[in-house]
Amino acid sequence: MIAMRALAVASALSLALTGCVVGPDYVRPDVSVPAAFKSADAASKDWKPAEPADAKTRAPWWEIYGDPQLNALEEKVAAANQTVAAAAARFRGAQAAVAQSRAAYFPTVTANVAFNQSRASENVLYKSSAGVTLPDYMLNAQITWEPDLWGRISRAVEGGRAEAAASAADLQSAILSMQAELATNYFELRGTVEEERLLAETLQAYQKALTLTKDRFAGGIAAESDVAQAEEQLKSTQAQLIDLETTKSRLVNAIAILIGEPPSSFTLDVSPLNAGNVPNPGAALDALPLGIPSTLLERRPDIAAAERRVAEANARVGVATAAFFPNLLLAATGGLEATNFSSWLMAPSRFWSLGPQLAFTVLDFGGRAAARDAARAAYDESVADYRQTVLTAFGQVEDNVNALQVLRRALDAQREAVDAAQRALSKVGNRYENGAITYLSVVVTQAIVLNDQRAAVSIERRRMAASVALVKAVGGGWTAGELRVSKGE
């Protein structure tokens, strides 16, 4: 009882001193935030930017494209992707580290039960136990506690919580990255299928042209070189169609890996990315608040992670600063010890000890100062990383808003080029059938039509990729308010 009362008095005294927390309190670093995105004004002529609505519940961002097949694939990413699984494991580890840091607030209780026998040498003079074998029965418990006098423990907990929050944001960033990569590969696959469709239709036209040319040659109207040119064009286009199989297979395999399935057993049939079923890339602008760049600080998980790591580094400065102050350790030990088992658990066998310990490093030749300087340097590095992350985010939004705007104009121009080339091919075909020109003119015009059509598909694929990249650049549907370090927060 005396020991416990003494420990209680010492604990009360230490609690009175615990309010002193050394080291700098955290303040979010300032960043330069523009008032608006410069590309958003031009884009608003084509798409109306949405107002910020972070308080509203968002549907999964990929649903803005209205593609049920894409929706089904995206739902599998968070549950089955292995990159996401690794990030989730790191987050759980960070949560455990926070719990471990919190445990330092409380006393540590240890218990020990032991039995041993010892015999002293008979040749030791003036020792009553010489030559005697003595048993020793012991049961003891020890309570130790280090009060958080200077905030070392609280700073460590603060840093651990910040790192856990950063890991939580890293997890969301991994999910968003994998989802965006899946969407990009999916639309690239649809574009490849559209190219296959174009080449297949072109091959039919080339086969008819070859048949016509052979008939004309048989009738003495066309030259043998016309037949050779028609055959070369047909075979060359067949080779292009076959080559697309490699691209298609690579994209299907990439999608399989993203959803956690073996590529060898995964198949996927998608519709072509043609004019009849092209999703609207402008939906990305309609669904996201592009008008206010400051929302990126809350909407992007990588920015949230970088900011939380600044807070973690700031807390580590406090931990390093606390090393300059003495540590107080309160300890109490009590138990039962006896030579005879029969008297081991009786009151006279009890023992106890109590005593505070104050430890202070008098001289370490600059070791603690160097550790504090290193912590401050790490903090400065994390601030620079945070600001760079913000700048990169602004640049990515600007790039992709501008890309959507420019590629829309480019696609309009390219479609006009396709229409013009098809009109030219119709006229050239009539002139060839009438014998006014050689087949070389037909070949050249057919090649122009095919190249223009494939260029239009390429621009459409780039538009979809820029649209997905824009969604990713503004954080998808995520907000910093979703950060949770532990249950109940």
From TrEMBL:
Protein name: RND transporter
Coiled coil: 220-247
Superkingdom, natural source: Bacteria
A molecular function (GO) term: efflux transmembrane transporter activity
InterPro entries: MdtP/NodT-like, OMP_efflux
Keywords in alphabetical order: Coiled coil, Lipoprotein, Membrane, Palmitate, Signal, Transmembrane, Transmembrane beta strand
GO cellular component: plasma membrane
